[in-house]
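Q: Structure tokens for this one, please.
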Amino acid sequence: MTRSVVFGAGQVGLPLAQLLSTRGQEVKLVSRSGGASVPGIEAVRGDAMNGEFCTETVRGASAVYHCMNPKYETAAWEAMLPRIQENLVAAAGRAQARLVVLDNVYMLGRPGGKPLTEDTPLNPCSRKGEIRARLADALLAAHRRGDVQAVTGRASDFFGPGGLQTMFEARFWKGVLAGKNAPVIVNPDTLHTYHYIPDVAAGLAALGAAESDVTGRAWMLPCERAVTTRELAARFAAQAGHTSDVQRMPRWLFKTLTLVVPILREFDEMLYQWEEPFVIDDQRFRERLAIAATPLDASVRATVQWARRQFG
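A: Here is the predicted structure, written as tokens:
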């Protein structure tokens, strides 16, 4: 039986583990809390900052999936992400397991009027992007040295079932489901690629099972066409039976709130992603892995069904 270990039981790690389990794999799902009991999946409590724990946990695995993300804070990323990656590289290398890393696109910086592809050079324009760029370079170097067989799947912002740490979080859904205008902090009228969470999980699973030619590089995970945030929110509202719109928080109010809301301070440097078209091109993934994104109507419908269960 194929054995996989998924580090991170959040909005991508959990559905990924469930998907792998439905395909007949023996799956361990690792988190600091140990997570809730999921049928067919072994929940493991532990800290990926501990190298010995990582080595012991992945022993006998054929694939290791890195879906962890510390607190959304530059200092936490700087302190934790390099060590976590080093531990997983070492552990997967010893186990001769493939390391599949979920990453964002912060390291690519501003698109400059062009779609973001696998060929887009690393050109970060934020502190978080600089950290991600260093991690991407280090992972590729480890692969080239033969320390580990590694592959990365990149995605933009998420939406979908379980997406509580996304642009479309509790406050957004409570407004939409009540037929009220939903608040957003970004420009709602620029094209933006949003990745559907089940497509992200399916893409990572495909990278974990594909032939070895996929390794040693980063892939753009499956995504539907880019839409404006306003259009996507309107689709959610229509599916919920309403005609809600979005309202952007005034910039002065946003800047004021950054003084008292730490996560807004952290997000401020990332607003550039909505100031011009921010489009991901997944053509190379579709051609090589033969997996396409879920049609937008279907992903919107499933997301609203989940939101109704989650928020009433």
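A few notes: The domain at 3-156+197-222 is CATH 3.40.50.720 (Rossmann fold). The chain has eleven helices and 13 strands.
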